[in-house]
Amino acid sequence: KSSRAMELLITSANPVSMMFGKVIASCTAGFVQLVSIFGSALLFFNINKSYWEGADMIESLFDMPVDLLIYMLVFFVLGFLIYAFMFSAVGSTASKLEDINTSVTPIVLIFVAGFIVVMVSMGTGNFDTTLIKVCSYIPFTSPMVMFARVVMTTVPVYEIAISIAILIASVIGIGVVSAKIYRVGVLLYGTPPKISAIIKAIRKAEREKSQVLNDA
Fold it and tell me: Are 68 and 155 in contact, with CB atoms under 8 Å apart?
């Protein structure tokens, strides 16, 4: 926005398509990076397997069951999408790079909170607390907390399914809301708007869209 390049971009592409394109591209890049890192680690482990004989922790890491690998990929993709949508929506309201850090701080704090919950539980070895179980179903923390529970304890399949279902529904819901905010936010300049101003702008845009459809 600082170079007004956004004005040129939104005249060439739909803002919602731009947002989803950026999110999907970032998720794909993160997925490729994840596969590359773990794939390289697995490759070099097998090449030097004789050297690591007797290292139980290393061997257990690379003897990961297939179901855990699948869960890791599922929670990674869904968690990435949720936070990417939120960052896109909030970032679109900032006019300058300097404003972005302040705008996204609440989202970062939510992520850090989930990380701290996992680390504390790993330190104590207790993954059956009420806090852990609640965080396993909150979409902002479940990608980390539920996966940690799956790895460290025995979790019933139905609990994992419920957590994933909530995550999928949250990704869709947050994606729709973020798209609406992004569509309005890319056109906002000046000081970062308040939430009330964003909601008002979204409602106005929706009314104008409905009017156009009715006229057509």
Answer: no
Q: Please tell me the least confidently modeled range out of 117-126, 143-152, 168-177.
A: 117-126
Each residue's pLDDT tens digit, 85-131: 888 888 877 777 777 777 788 888 988 988 898 888 888 878 888 88
pLDDT tens per residue across span 8-20: 776 777 777 878 8
Q: What is the predicted pLDDT for the residue at 169?
A: 94
CA 192 to chain CA centroid, Å, is 23
Burial (CB count within 10 angstroms: exposed 0-12, middle 13-18, buried 19+), residue 195: exposed
The whole-angstrom separation of Cα 157 and Cα 51 is 37
Residue among 203, 158, 171 at smallest CA distance from 79: 171
Residue type, 123: G
Whether 16 contacts 182, CB under 8 Å: yes
Q: How many CA atoms lie within 13 A of 130 on its CB side?
A: 0
DSSP symbols for 86-145: HHHHHHTT-SSHHHHHHHHHHHHHHHHHHHHHHHHHHHHT---SHHHHHHTTSTTTHHHH
* Token couple for 9: 């971009």
Question: What confidence score (pLDDT) does residue 41 get?
Answer: 83
